[in-house]
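name: query_chain
kind: protein
chains: 1
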Amino acid sequence: FPMEKLMEQFLEQSAQAEENFYRVEEQRLQAEDRRREAEHARELHMLQMLAQVFSSGRPSSSSSSTPKPSPPARPPVISSTPPSQHTRGPPGHLKRPASQTDSFSQPPSTDPQALALPSVLERYYSLGSSSLGGMDDDIVSLVKSIVPPLTSKKHKGQDGRIGIIGGCKDYTGAPYFAAISALKVGGDLSHVFCTKDAATVIKSYSPELIVHPVLDSPNAVEEIEKWLPRLHGLVVGPGLGREDFLLKTAKEVIERSRARDIPIVIDADGLWLVTHQPAVIQGYQKGILTPNFMEFTRLFEALHHEPMNSSDHQRSVMQLSAAMGNLTLVLKGEQDLISDGSKVYSCSVEGSGRRCGGQGDLLCGSMGVMAHWAHAASTAGLIRGMNPSVVAAFGACSLTRQCNNQAFQRHGRSTTTSDMIQEIGPAFRKLFES
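structure:
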């Protein structure tokens, strides 16, 4: 039938044209990213040269024609804290160790040139183009440094294209919460790969999500894989369910995403898969697991073949992270414990006593975006001395807890995750843009 053949050729040509468009668009975006990185490097180099000019142009005390009388001598005030020890502020916030000169009381500099350069640097770094990690080891400052600046030069998709693997007949809310949270945090596009009977429901929640009803199709892996080159991050598990076919599909998608070096956050039923097949994500440094206490217990006992020591959660978190190949692990609880097997960080931003369903979906959706930001910043050399996945996890945990707190202040016992999502913007500004 000539008409059917023509239609088939037309569809093939349309699909090929779409593939070519996305390929060219991806190349253009990569070129734009390289141009912006080079521009930032030039700006940083100019600032470094400016610092040298300021330091070399500052008059020395010996060049003064009239020597100034020195102030009366007084004994130095020595700090009671040894210089080699780290000081600790509020829980979850680490401060750099005091240097030898920090142990003495000294008057602040009043040299205008000495004060000018830090203010210039502060304005430059506040745009999010680099990290303040060298000046302040506080992990919150590192989170602030990975947040990409909002500029008119950007194009749709540059700040994050995130995929959610999940959504079935029984669970349609979880993938929606994760996907919409990714957008509210600052990602540009959210894709939901769900089963056919869940797609219409999820689409009805929001027109802002891109919904693909392919998760239960016979060629589901191939249908999802063709989108992987366009994604910056993957969240596996919200609303996935535990049917064998869906878990098998999720496993293969994780493996193919690993091969493409895509950051992966695994939550909910995705953790059920990891508990039974830990090798699927084991050792992947761009992987993050976000179990609650019960999920953590099952995973710990599956890997260690012995009961977990419930009296020492920090030690257990570090042990499990190490057993999983030092990937980043987040144990959600009264305080969120985050570890990559070498250290344990405690996020104790005040939340509330309200524990409604869906909060974990907000967490993993926002974490998917922040993982992309953190690894992009690390690749650009903007994060040093800290695992990017840990930075992303800490940022998402802080944000979720802050959203919970703000929503609870408004709604009290009736707080739901939908109320928390409305607080993402204000909470983000308070934590990371103030």
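note: The mean pLDDT is 82.
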